[in-house]
Design goal:
Elements lengths: L1 H28 L12 H25 L6 H25 L4 H20 L2 H12 L5
Helix pairs in contact: 1-2, 1-5, 3-4
Length: 140
């Protein structure tokens, strides 16, 4: 149980830092941050920078959750659900418009694999801490 809790904290932190970095990258570079979108124009650039800021905020949500003790399972499930919804959006895009840049395909796979892992780990720290409390001897 403790190993799962450590895995949860590590993955939540890594996800948070990655999302903040990716989001800020998109805010700073606009269309240049999106493979194949370099000449997409001002509207797509504006949209990409806005979503970059939103993604950075999403990463801050992961970091907030990772810094709680215990990590709140409900927050992990909601954040993982949002990531999964993003993957569903990418799959819809694939169905409607065809295959994107190969890097986007890799991101889709990551976004499909991580949420089930987070759902499985979501309450591991809460359970580990409950186990520690239950193992303590009763006060006399």
């Amino acid at each position: 149980m403790v190993a799962k809790a450590k895995m949860l904290r590590g993955l939540a932190c890594a996800t948070g830092y990655a999302c903040v970095a990716i989001g800020l990258f998109h805010v700073l570079l606009g269309n240049a941050a999106i493979p194949g979108a370099g000449s997409a124009g001002a509207t797509v650039d504006s949209l990409g920078r806005f979503f970059g800021a939103t993604f950075a905020g999403y990463g801050l949500g992961w970091l907030w959750a990772a810094r709680r003790s215990p990590i709140p399972a409900t927050a992990v499930r909601w954040l993982a659900g949002v990531l999964l919804l993003g993957a569903v959006g990418r799959l819809l895009s694939l169905a409607v418009d065809g295959w994107p840049h190969a890097f986007q395909v890799v991101l889709t796979v990551v976004e499909l694999v991580l949420p089930p892992l987070f759902f499985w780990l979501a309450d591991s720290e809460e359970k580990a801490l409950r186990g520690v409390v239950q193992e303590r001897p009763a006060a006399s």
